[in-house]
User: What shape does this take?
Amino acid sequence: MNGTRVLLEACAAAGVKRVVMASTSGTIAVSKEERVATEDDDYPIVTVADWPYYLSKIYQEKAALRIHRDTGLPLVCLNPSLLLGPEDARLSSTDVVYKFLERRIPAMPSGGISFVDARDVAAAFVAALEKGRPGERYLLGGANMRFSEFFKRLSRISGVEAPVLKLPTKLNVAGAKLLERWHDWRGSEPDLDAHSTEMGERWWYCDSSKAERELGFAPRDPQETLVDTVRWLDANVRRREKASGVFLPG
Assistant: This one.
């Protein structure tokens, strides 16, 4: 947050004409109930209190918008959901698809996911430089679907079976915490940590109609995104690992 504050204050002092900040839909669109969030929703601080990444992004976003109000810095905030698509060599956001392909997701999450093609988000960032309204947030989501449907689609594309086991939320999270402690004792890493398991029991749905109206945001068919993601991971990351015998940790 301090880095964001220092940078944006310097931008304001230098008279920068436009700043487009990359945030995340997780500063708005995460809930314990099945619902679709909009930009009018308040920050879900209580829901994400135990998740350092999302909590830090909320405070970053709040600081940035406060600087906009205090200095007049023309800042636009974009909030994409989970970024999927090809070319994610570091597995920075396609990790969930990679773990599915490697059969490292032991149980079916009960919540729902929102994802968007990184190529469509890139186009939205370009558009925001001219069309975005300063001081506004824009949710960017390509599709909202239950994790059960998400993994079924991945299964049809890849031929990898979706997780069959489905546990109640409390039992699923408790089991993940127990496994995490066991792995800590062994000095190893679990396939899914407790925080990731808990996130899978939440709802991440978002409404992108504001971005569609004002930025011309036009997400492609989500099936195209999933096909391209699976094919790229299989042809690059998974094939490289099999050839080298190297295993990338999650």
